Here is the input.
Amino acid sequence: MVFNSNLKELSFLVYGLGITGKSVVNFFKKKKIQKYQVWDDKNKKLFANKRPHNLKEALKRVNYIILSPGISLNKSKHKKKLIKYKSKIITDIDLIYLFYKNFKSIVVTGTNGKSTTCKIINHLLKKNKIQSLLGGNIGTPILNLKVKKNIFLIIEASSFQLAYSQFIRPNYAFLLNISNDHLDWHGSKNHYKNSKFKIFNLQKKNDYAFVNIYLKENFKRKNFLSKLIIPKTNNYKKLKKKIKNIYVKSNINDENMSNVLSLSKLLKISDKSFIKSMKTFVGLPHRYETFLKKKQITFINDSKATSFQATKFALENSRNIFWILGGLPKKNDKIIINDLKKNITKVYIIGKHSKFFEKQIKGKINYSVTKNLRNSIIRVLKDIKKFNIKKNTILLSPSAASYDQYLNFEKRGEDFKKLSKFYARKFI
Here is the structure.
C-alpha cells in the first residue's frame, strides 16, 4: 500500500476513543487535518460532531482506519465490517512514520521487559547527550511527542499495535523474547508471534535487528533485509560487576541490559560511559520493585507480571518467597514451579479465579486461598513469625491480569504497597 504524503488530501476514521484515539484526534487538529471522523462503541458523545451516522458507509469511504490498540477484530462489536476493510487499518505509530521523515527510531517489542528496556535506552542516550523522546505503549501516546529533526524516537510497541501497523520502519528494532500472552486477543500463538516479527518487515539493509538467540532461526527464515544482531549476555556480564546499581545488576535485567549494551556499541558509546550512565538509572514502578525492607523482610511489587513467564524471573531471583499469586489468567498460561519450589516458602492465591491457580499448584507446594491483597499481607506476616526463617521476601507477582479486582496493574501495585506499609507498621 502506498501512502499519499499529503495527509490533508486523505480521509480517516479513528476507531476507539481511549487515550490513543484521543491523541490521534488532537494530532489531526494540531496538523490542521480536516477529513477525519471518529467512532467509539460506547462513548457516543465524545467528538460527537465528527461521528458518522452510518459506520458501514464511513468505513467504505475513508482512506484509512486508525484502530486503537485495545480493540481486537476478533471481539469487536463490528467485527464483520472491520474485517471487510482490514487493508485500510493502520495505527497511531504508523502516522509518525508517515508524517515525519528526519528522525531516527528505536522500536522495542517482546512479551517481557519492553518498558524497562525502553526506559534504560532513553536514560543512556540522555546521559550521553543524544536527544531522545520516549513513548508508545509505555504510557505517553506517540503522537503527543514533539518530534524534531535528528532526534531519536524510542517507541515501545505492543503486539496490539504491531498487528495492524503497515508503515513502521525502525532504524533499530528489538525483539526481546516471545512467550504465551494476549492469545485471547490474537486468537493463536502463531498470530501473536507474527505480530511481533512485523517490526522487521520494512527495515532496509542499513537498519539493525536485535533478536533473542532463541528466535534467530525464525528471523533468518523470513529473509529480512536488516543486519541481524544477537545480544550476548556474557558481554554484559563482564561489565556488570562495575555497575553500582542494585536494580540494574539484578539477574532479572540481564537480557534487557545485554540488548542496551549492544545498541550502545553501534552508537559508539564507550564502556566507561555505559557503566557511568547505568549507575544513575532508576527502575520503573511495579516491575520487581523493592519498595520496603523491614527486620529482614523484603517487600517486592512485581504487579506488572501478568503472565507466569514474567513472574518466573522474580521467582528465580528471590529466596524464601511468600508469593502472592492470582487475578485474571491469560489464555493457555501454565504455572510451572517444579524448578522454582526451592525458592518459594508459601503461596497466597487472590482474585476471582482461584480454582485455576489451585489446580496448577495443588500437591506441589504449600498454599492458602486468601482472596484479596489485604488478607494476603496479614496472613503472610503471621506466617513469617510461624515459619521463623531469616531473610524473607514478600512478593506480589500475580502471573495474571488485574481486571478481576483492579482497573489496571498500576492500581493493584499501589494498593499492595499501601497495604504492606500499613501492616508492616502494625505487625513487624
